[in-house]
Amino acid sequence: MKFRTLRADEIDVRVATVKENGLSLLLYKDARCDMNILDETIGSMNWKREHTRDNANCIVSLWDSEKQQWISKEDTGKESFTEKEKGIASDSFKRACFNWGIGRELYTAPFIWIKAEDANIKQYNNKFSSNEKFTIEKIAYDEAKNITGLSIQNSKGKRVFVWQKS
Question: By the 8 A CB rule, do 28 and 12 touch?
Answer without folding.
Answer: yes
